[in-house]
Amino acid sequence: MSHIEDLDGVDPAEYADLEVHRHVEAKFKAKKEHNILTLLVPSKVNGPKTDVSHKLVGNSLELTIDGEVVTIEL
Prior knowledge:
Elements: E1 2-4, E2 23-25, E3 52-57, E4 60-65, E5 68-73
Antiparallel strand pairs: 1-2, 3-4, 4-5
């Protein structure tokens, strides 16, 4: 996983006066199949932070978000 702060292949002069562009890039070894799960947790800059944790339980992903448990079958 990489945090990227540019637009690959785009002339920086084209976005010089704009807010910095950020994105996350995931790279994996060659395989027939990849399963990727993304959890987006919105939060305000000066607001309370969301408490998120996870664990694998058998064939399920168990998320705990601010004390509430959510289970996702994999």
